[in-house]
Amino acid sequence: MSILKFNPRNTVLLFIILVVAALRLLTDFATGFGPLAAFTPIGAMALFGGAYFNGYLKPFAFPLFTLFISDLILSFTILSSYRTGLLYQGWYWTYTAFALMALAGKLIVKHATIKHISFGIITVVLIHWLVSDIGGCLHEKNFSSMLAVYGQRLITAIPFELRFLGGTILYSAMMFGTFEWMQKKYPQLAIQGA
Fold it and tell me: What's the pTM value of the predicted model, to 2 decimals?
């Protein structure tokens, strides 16, 4: 019988994601955060989780679960007017995009260098931009009208995606920077655990 070992690396990684998710909630609930409230950390959460968690389940499960909890809180509080059922309409497209963002983190950010993280950020923003609005176009009767509606949605989403890019850059710098610093200060965090 195997005994589960405490893995400080996973605990710290999950803690960082939870702190950023809490910041997401705080900035959504409070207006005193100024420009920070315009930026969302979800792209950075997916990229970070995908980059650092080992295995095939944890890189997706931990960030997705954290997103779900924060979405659930927002859905039953300040965003309740957008709720249909448990979450908002089209949530599955957002979660599909989020899982793909975590996959991008796993595949692209093999080493936490500025080059890898920058490429990961660009990929995450493109995934979010291209995937999250697909659901709103599927009700169209034919393929050409679906493409026209999808193209219009992509153009309309550009201002939001620019804020999404800013948030992904800001929170990625915070998350990756914090964990890289912690790995230098506490070498046991650098050991890849199960």
Answer: 0.85
